[in-house]
Amino acid sequence: MKQFQRTVFIFLSALIFRSFFVAIFPGPNYFSGITDSFVEVAQNIINGRGAVTYVDIAPLSSHTSNFVYAPFYHRPFGYVVFVLFPLLLSSNLIIIQILQSVIAGFSSILVYALAKKITSHNYAVMAAYLYALWPLSARFEISVLPDALVSFFLLLTIWCLLKNLEEEKPLVWNLLAGISNGIAVLMRPEIALLPFFLLGAFFVLKQTRSLIKKIILFAAGMLLVIIPQTVQNYRASEGHIIPLGIGNGLSMWEGISQFGNKFGTVFGDEHTAEHEGYENWGFPNGVKRDQQRFQEAVDIIVSHPIWYAGVMAERIPVLLTPDWIMTRKFTPSLKEYLDESPNRTMLTFFAAYSVSTAIRVLLIMLQYASLVLALYGFIRSGSRQLLWFPACLIFYYVVIHIPTNTEARYFYPAIPFVLILAAEGLRQFRENNRQEIALIKNESEFK
Known about the structure:
By secondary structure, the protein is mainly alpha-helical. It has a domain of 92 residues. The protein contains 19 helices and 2 strands.
């Protein structure tokens, strides 16, 4: 009964805390353009138009518009399916945020369940409550974006893999892990390569028995989820093989200029649209243009490998440092503020937006404190081999994003795994302190 009560309290803590953020940030206000693109397709399905999006296919040079309903295939379809059901009940997007808050409550329970296998029970409870009340996660997970759901399916995937190590009939858990990971891929396609990194954890754990079967079942679970959209995209795009969506080529091409325009590329959606000559990167001829930009990006990177290695190194702090998600509704970014007038400085920004500045600094401090504790916990407890699962996932999130085009929000789904390792790091830190204090006390008594 006590165990059940603790689980309920963890769930309610996460739900109530996120509901507080829903009250502050109702509806789409963080990357609202992405939100609108998914909601629009869901509403078109509800209204009987099918899985189509309403886009302007006229070239920008024509200075006219030509809006048409075009097949939706430029983004993964998972979030459309998710928002479809609450939109059947109400057109108010707050209902989606509430549903995501409920899912975040279950994510907190999964953090507790995973942490129990990795660290001590008390610190597993701490990890769960940290995540339930972590402000950056709470704010992010009520944003009406597919990214907001990824943490739950990643946690579920790792939980299934750990069950695989415990059960007498483990292979079913690999299939379920594959299905869960496949759903995460339909939200954010970069998760597709995660199994290769998780495979490394099995080698560390020396769980190579039936490994081929496990890999096959994991892959089968993913394919069960991904193949239907791949077939639909093939039909909708008139014969192009698009497993999940397009845009990676343009993203990589754009990313070359992330820290200043280079080699004929540009950075930013508006500049890219001007370069491409169309308002929307996916239509018309989006597949062909994406492939061309991908090849251009690869050619540039191959020609300047040392320079690009430096760019990737620069992206790491961008990825790991929280952005303005918590205060953007009320306060411009520092760059936007400084660009508006040459007389503006960082000091005038701090004076004008002192509360927002304090919140942003606090978020950065929390993020980096958790990362340092997580690294400390992993280094000190490397012999506790189950730590390799969250560690591999965090490492994957870094290395998969820095080669292309980086934003801080890309790392947010990995936060629960950081907090699991951070809880273990805190446990190690406190135990080491106790041992040192006991040693000093014994030495003083001996003297």
